[in-house]
Known about the structure:
0% strand
Amino acid sequence: MHALLSHPAVQSGLQPFIAALIFSELFLRMRLSGLAIIAGFSVMLYLVSDLSFEPLTPDHKIVLLGFLSTLLGLLFMVFNPRWLRFLLTLAGGCAAIWAMLSILKQYELMALPLWAGGCAIYVGWLVFWFDGLHDSSARAGSAGMALGLGSGVSALLCATTLPEQFGLAVGAAAGAYLLIQIITSSPLPCGRIFTLPLAIIAGLSGCLAILTTKLPWYSLPVLALIPVAAKIPLSGIRSLWLQSVLLSVISLVFAGGAVYLTWRVVGGSLF
């Protein structure tokens, strides 16, 4: 039993999934079901990390930014100016550069702006498009599940531990959040407490994998299309469970595309 509970797939997938299920239901009446993302992420951290922040490495910065983005999501439930989406996009880009700074400093001067700009654009893009899904729980849940799983499995193929675990944890949490809606055919409260930490954690995990492993850079643009694809109109389909299933399939196609591109480069096995 101990060996089973300590298996990476259980720690990064199953247990975050269960935690997200519990939190989604537990905080439903307070309209805080979106906390499922940070709940699943926190359980994964408890199981696989000592939660030490000394020294402040890129993966530690991702953890800090994940919790900070959740707090900001709570704040922006009551404070929602028109320019907020663009401010969050800019902040996401700056956060990417700060989180990856120690790695970026190792690059040659000519390559530094390219990689720094790429990371900032990728995370900022995810923040922007996921913010457009914060009032649509089915779309946000489908896109979040696909982005997390696509990022996590791609990192897994590259034999990297933390980006894999971060991505799989938020993907599993989003999947649990989505599953409740499919079963009950009733939307859950979403908001930026769901979309903002999801975009930040998954986005920064992808950047970390790109900069530290053989993960091909062109897999990130494919993953970046997931929240855009989740906005596809489904006119005439009123059933929430059917919407969720269709959006999940569409989003997972792009996640699978990113995994395939990674596999073509690094090879390896998922098992």
